[in-house]
Amino acid sequence: MSFQSPELSGKGGQIWSRFQARQHGYTNVLAKSLLQCQDLILRVNGLAMDW
């Protein structure tokens, strides 16, 4: 079943696009926290090497 079908215009389409937007938001948050964790790990490794 294709989600891009014209029958989804209206309420179903609105719900679907809202769901997609929410998923996109979650993905952004996850990516940001992953980058922060990576940064932290790199800093800790750098400190360990300095010692």
TrEMBL record:
Protein name: Uncharacterized protein
